[in-house]
Specification:
This protein has 312 residues and is an alpha+beta fold. The protein folds into two domains: 3-72, no CATH class; 82-311, 3-Layer(bba) Sandwich (Chalcone isomerase). It is 43% helix and 21% strand. It is built from ten helices and 13 strands. The protein has helices at residues 3-16, 44-72, 138-143, 146-153, 161-170, 172-184, 201-213, 222-235, 279-290, 298-311; strands at 22-23, 36-37, 82-83, 92-93, 95-96, 107-117, 122-132, 189-195, 199-200, 241-242, 247-252, 258-264, 269-276. Strand 3 and strand 4 (92-93) form a beta hairpin. It is globular and about 55 Å long. The chain starts with a helix and ends with a helix. One of its GO terms (cellular component) is mitochondrion. It is found in: Mitochondrion. It holds the Pfam family Chalcone_2. It comes from Zygotorulaspora mrakii. Its main location: mitochondrion.
């Protein structure tokens, strides 16, 4: 039966002024259950027709409401413009750049996920990893290079290059090598971090410092990293609280430096925080999001990997 007929049935109900019209709770998959109840007494064929139409109308409305709620939990909120990364924060744009944010290029989403801590998977923020729109070609250029293909990727001749890339991106050591080569190619990257609960700048700053220090190669470059991490601490020029659903934008620019900015969603205001010129800080931080034995967000790492595989 068409939706127009159902609406017509609902209009008949209104004109009949039925009393105590209610919709009972329903269970998913039990669409044949009676959902309409009325204390009004309408006898004869007209009454049966009205009751039948009312039941169908209520079923349709309930179904639409259910599907709306179900769609809110889907990964794709709007397939063209946004991705629903976590239901507790605003959807992430699939593209971002100036003038909304003080960044150097237009970026497209490469992967997304959530950062969790402790053994109970306590979520702290949702994140999106982006690559500059003009730099996407660097992914196939780097991963299709003869050196990487021969030494690290195409080690199984029975599989296609794309299948071997997928295997390599699943391997902690190989994935670090591939991502490091991509970052060394000058690819501009960006990570958007949106807390799922109230936090503060000190907590975010300390988390970044810890993430860089946890990179597998950090111990071999402590002297160089020391000055860079001090730059990172000073880049957090704002103090105090960071509200749930605000954004911290970290851009890895073409020269390897980092630029940090903060979006206060309630005020609709963006603040440029500071810069980090030491290249290893940015490289290690982004490598921790996209590769390695202990990625900051396994779900984001896997999402990035699947998109990279699709581009080679």
């Amino acid at each position: 039966m068409s939706f127009a007929v159902l609406l017509k049935g609902a209009n008949v109900l209104r004109k009949a002024r039925l009393r105590n019209y209610t919709i009972r709770r329903f269970n998913k998959g039990s669409w044949n259950r009676t959902l309409v109840h009325s204390s009004a007494k309408i006898n004869g064929p007209t009454g049966k027709a009205i009751t039948s139409l009312a039941t169908l109308a209520a079923t349709w409305v309930t179904y639409v409401c259910f599907r709306t709620l179900e769609n809110d939990a889907n990964l794709l909120d709007d397939q063209d413009t946004t991705v629903n990364v976590d239901n507790s924060v605003s959807p992430f744009p699939t593209k971002l750049g100036p003038p909304e944010y003080p960044v150097s290029a237009k970026y497209v989403l490469l992967g997304y996920g959530a950062r969790s801590v402790t053994f109970v998977s306590f979520r702290v923020y949702a994140l999106g990893v982006y690559i500059a729109e003009q730099d996407r070609h660097l992914i196939p250029n780097v991963l299709n290079s003869k050196f990487l293909s021969t030494a690290f990727i195409d080690t199984d001749p029975s599989k296609s290059h794309q299948e071997n890339v997928k295997e390599a991106m699943s391997d902690p050591k190989k994935s670090s090598i591939l991502i490091d080569n991509l970052l060394d190619s000058g690819a501009r990257m960006l990570v958007k971090i949106t807390p799922v609960r109230n936090t503060d700048f000190n907590h975010l700053r300390d988390g970044f410092v810890k993430s860089v220090l946890n990179h597998p190669e950090a111990k071999n470059n402590q002297e160089v990293l020391s000055a860079g991490l001090e730059e990172l601490r000073k880049a957090f020029t704002l103090k105090g609280k960071v509200a749930k659903n605000d954004d911290l934008i970290v851009e890895l620019q073409a020269n390897g430096g980092l630029q940090l900015s903060y979006y206060d969603r309630k005020r609709g205001h963006v603040t440029l925080l500071g810069r980090v010129n030491q290249q290893l800080v940015g490289k290690y931080l982004f490598s921790q999001y996209m590769s390695g034995p202990k990625p900051l967000s396994p779900s984001a790492k896997d999402s990035v990997a699947s998109h990279i595989v699709a581009l080679v």
